[in-house]
Amino acid sequence: xxxxxxxxxxxxxxxxxxxxxxxxxxxxxxxxxxxxxxxxxxxxxxxxxxxxxxxxxxxxxxxxxxxxxxxxxxxxxxxxxxxxxxxxxxxxxxxxxxxxxxxxxxxxxxxxxxxxxxxxxxxxxxxxxxxxxxxxxxxxx
Amino acid sequence: xxxxxxxxxxxxxxxxxxxxxxxxxxxxxxxxxxxxxxxxxxxxxxxxxxxxxxxxxxxxxxxxxxxxxxxxxxxxxxxxxxxxxxxxxxxxxxxxxxxxxxxxxxxxxxxxxxxxxxxxxxxxxxxxxxxxxx
Lengths: 141, 134
Description:
Chain A is an alpha+beta fold. Chain A is about 40% helix and about 15% strand. Chain A has two domains: about 10-70, no CATH class; about 75-135, no CATH class. A five-stranded mixed beta sheet of chain A has the order 2-1-3-4-5, covered by helices on one side. The longest helix of chain A is centred in the last third of the chain and has 14 residues, at about 110-125. Chain B has one domain. Chain B is built from seven helices and no strands. In chain B, helix 3 (about 30-40) packs antiparallel against helix 4 (about 45-60). The relative contact order of chain B is 0.16. The interface between A and B is small, with 8 and 10 residues.
């Protein structure tokens, strides 16, 4: 994969799209999101930590995200937009935990934060939300 | 009244009761400290207990008009709902207090600047006379 150190299967996320195997590193999150949102992969196994062997858990038609299985990822587009809206001003840790720094909220705008956070709160704790936080990127691909 | 606003009003009264020297001593993180203490004090089922615990932690003394407002909120019968908000939406409530506080300070500064401008105009020996052409 063009790396100096030897890479392991567990370091990568694996997709099968139209019968073709697509291994992606964490640096390819845009591509991962694009596959999940637009290409209906036959197999999707997403490694969050890169430290656990999860490929053997693959089930066709089910998204395996680290150790969690997501059977329906149809709301992912909306949740990802929501998380990326927050990610412009807040860290992933703040978004995932719901504990934000006051100064960042004031800089972002209290009303806008309140609107986005109230939506995020309803998804927080779900595997889909964790996946969206993992995939969220700043700016355009 | 909106429950968020009621909770923010309660916190405002407590915030105003914190001594200035305490706010000054911890000015770098006083708002974070306020938020953390609000959250931890709200783990009770009695709103009066919440107020007394928080006041004790922050050395606050609620006085004057604020004590009447606090009394009204404490007798409102919404202990559970308010405490739940204070636990779960602490950041928002503290920021509502903080923003209102900033707006009050800004308005006070503007009034002060306006008063100084008026005083400077009145001190002018030609005050009140029509301004001539150069």
